[in-house]
Amino acid sequence: MSKMPENGASARAKVLTLDTMNPAVKKVEYAVRGPIVQRAVELERELSEGIKKPFTEVIKANIGDAHAMGQQPITFFRQVLALCSYPELLNDSTFPEDAKSRARRILQSCGGNSMGSYSASQGIDAVRQDVARYIERRDGGGPCDPDDVYLTTGASDGIVTMLKLLVCGKGATRTGVMISIPQYPLYSAALAELDAVQINYYLNEEKCWSLDISELQRALDEARRHCNPRALCIINPGNPTGQVQSRQCIEDVIRFAAQERLFLMADEVYQDNVYADGCRFHSFKKVLFEMGPEYSDTVELAFFPLHLQIGSLYFLCGFRGGYMEIINMDEEVRAQLSKLVSVRLCPPVPGQALMDLVVNPPQPGEPSHEKFIKERTATISALAEKAKLTEQVLNTVQGISCNPVQGAMYSFPRITIPEKAVKEATDKGQQPDMFYCMKMLEETGICLVPGSGFGQRDGTYHFRMTILPPKDKLTTLLNKVKEFHQKFLQQYS
Ligand SMILES: Cc1ncc(COP(=O)(O)O)c(C=O)c1O
Predict the structure, then answer these.
(1) What distance in Å separates the CA atoms of residue 373 and residue 361, rounded to the nearest whole number?
(2) Which CATH architecture has domain 23-70+372-492?
(3) EC number(s) on record (predicted)?
């Protein structure tokens, strides 16, 4: 409410109020940084002020920020970035020669020989060329034109940009976009903000979160009655669900998109995070090209691989970098895309520089290669071990069942919430899994994200927990979750 000025004159009403603001923004929700996380931050402050709690530390297992979890950064990346930021260090003999030559190349490709300059809106040419060569290597030689590559401020930026191009219409012609449930809530948030229709298709939890074409068809047929479905988004490997889809599944999805005339958006940011035996990452682009010209010349695809966040395993999310490649996009729309990205001038140049290193790391024979491989291998092995550990421990708890964490960096176990607790939550106006996670935070200091933030089948409850903490911390965390769940069941059964 407006505050009355002291002289008694009536206060001027604010131009911007909850009633007059953009209603689409009010519909946006983003559980990954929602009320639980806000409370976790408050608890951290209270602990630092000496207020007594039943725990001594808040463990933020809600988000995939590996550096915040103490993961070792990759030395080569830091060296090159340091050299690019402060080129005087190029005279310092403690830096290896390959880091120096990489820094010189990046600096030369930046306007004004400085990372402080703007770059081209689509991204630095030399970096887009390296990305294109990388995608060709990744996909076994299929051509990639650097002009089809757009560097972005992380995957989020690329995904939202593509959705902006796709969304239009009003009423029954409003654009519908198919997203998985559970989903990474960037999608639901962006669709809410753009006032598009979210079309939910459910992943099959009983079959390790696999994707059934019959479920896609059901969701599409129902949606066609009230909107205009135009795009299909797939996250593979999955967040929050950690599954890795089979090659057959990807082929079926491409065929479905072709048949139903849907624009495909493939979120492959976790492409390098595959742990389970027998699982392999198959890129949409590679499968599309293997299916022959009937598909590779027609299906419109945007994919978002290897971002600084995660897919690359290097966890540089704060630098904000990434890229997308677009395939079979109409030339006139592509011109609109180029215009759209030019409005934000350019993605951060340090993020672009790092992206270049991610797609083009030290090669055999270069001074930094051995150390780089050692650091990278240590990261992958540790993640694989922690994925297994998480699944194993959670499955020993009565009332928790967890699918194998085949990839990405989260587990998404199903939890039993007794009727009595569901009622108490409903009486408080809370989702039952929010009630559960809030209680766990207050009693143990563990910060998880309730499954309702990602979407789940009615009557089922989950939480998302990252597998990133160092092994000893993860073990403590899992044991605390176990203890809490047992107590919770006893209290409410
Ligand atoms: C599936 C998925 N897509 C996109 C993103 C956004 O990544 P970025 O930090 O590159 O914007 C994330 C981040 O966690 C993610 O999990």
Answers:
(1) 9
(2) Alpha-Beta Complex (3.90)
(3) 2.6.1.2
Cis bond leading into 347, ω under 30°?
A: no
pTM: 0.90
CB 233 within 8 A of CB 201: no
Task: Give dist(CA 264, CA 230) in Å, integer.
Answer: 9
Is there an atom of ligand 1 within 6 Å of 62 CB? no
CA distances from residue 87 to 101, 124, 336 in whole angstroms, order as listed: 12, 19, 37
Residue 309 CB less than 6 A away from ligand 1: yes
**pLDDT tens sequence across 381-394:** 888 999 999 999 99
ipTM above 0.95, yes or no: yes
Stretch 363-371: mean pLDDT: 94
**Sequence ranges of the domains in the chain:** 23-70+372-492, 107-359
Q: 316 CB less than 6 Å from ligand 1?
A: no
Q: Cα–Cα distances in Å, from 445 out to 279, 336, 442, 477, 485?
A: 34, 48, 6, 10, 14
CATH topology of domain 107-359: Aspartate Aminotransferase; domain 2 (3.40.640)
- Give me the helices (H) in 429-470, please: 432-444
Identify whether the C-beta of residue 253 lies closer than 8 Å to the C-beta of residue 288: no
Query: What does the alpha-carbon distance between residue 394 and residue 378 come to, in Å, rounded to a whole number?
Result: 24
